[in-house]
Design goal:
- The structure holds 2 protein chains of 2 kinds.
- By secondary structure, chain A is mainly β.
- Chain A is built from no helices and 11 strands.
- By secondary structure, chain B is mainly beta.
- Helices cover 0% and strands 52% of the residues of chain B.
- In chain B, strands 2, 5, 6, 10, 11 and 12 form a 6-stranded mixed sheet that branches.
- The termini of chain B are far apart.
- The relative contact order of chain B is 0.33.
- The A-B interface holds A 4, 6, 31, 33, 35, 40-45, 48, 55-56, 58, 90, 92, 94, 99-100, 102-108, 110 and B 4, 32, 34, 36, 41-46, 49, 51, 90, 92, 97, 99-107.
Chain lengths: 114, 114
């Protein structure tokens, strides 16, 4: 049973560029959440997707956008990259039917901005 | 908005001694509380959760946590620490139903000394 998978593992970009990160949820899960984890910090909620729509959003600018596909996989897009966007980006999946079940996390994408 | 505080940056403990990692929370309504562990260059791994019921919750790898409503705390414990328990530990709180985002603390680095 494959867990949450994220790609790529590492990515290096320069300021002003755009980036797309990908996530495949755990089998049986239909909800995908994205988190940003800066160095030495806890993960910060970016947004959550369910039924191909953004259901909740954290305190992140519009440069951060996402998408969910019919197979429940998801993408996180970040435009006009800033140095401060350097972080580990974590994807977590869950089932909307399992309200009290934990979110399952992937190993993340390490994004470095030069 | 929900939030979590983990007051200590690092917890040092000798192998075989009891381990405690502290967490206090703030949330409107009933709290849904979680502990996750993160090993280097990995995502977050679920340890245990409190939803309702018994205040003492048992989880993976011999960990347990005690929910205390009056002190708004959810401390993680292990009776006998192992060197392999050395990792970063995160406490998280989820709001009431309909608010699925997790709010994480800044994390505690646990170092188990052989």
């Amino acid at each position: 049973d494959a867990g949450v998978t994220q790609s790529p593992t590492h990515l290096i970009k320069t300021r002003g560029q755009q980036v797309t990160l990908r996530c495949s949820p755990k089998s049986g899960h239909d909800t995908v959440s994205w988190y940003q984890q800066a160095l030495g910090q806890g993960p910060q909620f970016i947004f959550q997707y369910y039924e191909e729509e953004e259901r909740q959003r954290g305190n992140f600018p519009d440069r951060f956008s996402g998408h969910q596909f019919p197979n429940y996989s998801s993408e996180l897009n970040v435009n006009a990259l800033l140095l401060g966007d350097s972080a580990l980006y974590l994807c977590a999946s869950s089932s909307d039917r399992g309200v009290h079940q934990p979110q399952h996390f992937g190993d993340g994408t390490r994004l470095s901005i030069l | 908005a929900q939030s979590v505080a983990q007051p200590e940056d690092q917890v040092n403990v000798a192998e075989g001694n009891p381990l405690t990692v502290k967490c206090t929370y703030s949330v409107s309504g009933n709290p849904y509380l979680f502990w996750y562990v993160q090993y280097p260059n990995r995502g977050l791994q679920f340890l245990l959760k409190y939803i309702t019921g018994d205040n003492l919750v048992k989880g993976s790898y011999g960990f347990e946590a005690e929910f205390n409503k009056s002190q708004t705390s959810f401390h993680l414990k292990k009776p006998s620490a192992l060197v392999s328990d050395s990792a970063l530990y995160f406490c998280a709180v989820r709001g009431p139903y309909g608010n699925n985002r997790l709010a994480f603390g800044k994390g505690n680095q646990v170092v188990v000394i052989p």
